[in-house]
Amino acid sequence: MGKKYLPEYKAARTLWEDYQLEESKSAMEELLDEHDVPVNIYMRVLILLSISTDDQDKAEDARLAYETLWQFTRKRYRYDTDRWAQTTLRCIRESLNELREVQEEEALERQAEEARRGWRRCDYLLKILYGDSDRDNENKAGVSKALWGIVEFHLRFEG
User: Counting beta carbons within 10 angstroms of the beta carbon of residue 134, is it exposed (0 to 12), middle (13 to 18) or buried (19 or more)?
Assistant: First the structure.
């Protein structure tokens, strides 16, 4: 049963290695739609999808599905004395940890970039409001003209 899908997986992986990402994603998604794909191929497809998509939500969803499958597989083989099974599970765990770390770093980078964009917008708005140089725009009271205008506006309409 598993050997039936191995050529399809290898073809999808070859597309991925050749940077034909759209074709690779399509081939991998077709594999995931099959109902009798063995878990080991299913997990391999999930990891490739997770690292090849630009959509961070899809990448995390694929990693979390991969994580869930790993947990079920680990429970299944927990007491198995087969060294190959234990080594494979350990390697999968290491891959999952690395993938999680990469996704967390990318999320932090995105948040930092959003913060920088926010600060640049804020800085731009402050320059529009106060001008490029606060010293040129300060009155004798030490308040910028823009701010002084706001204070004057409120004083006029309060009294």
Answer: middle
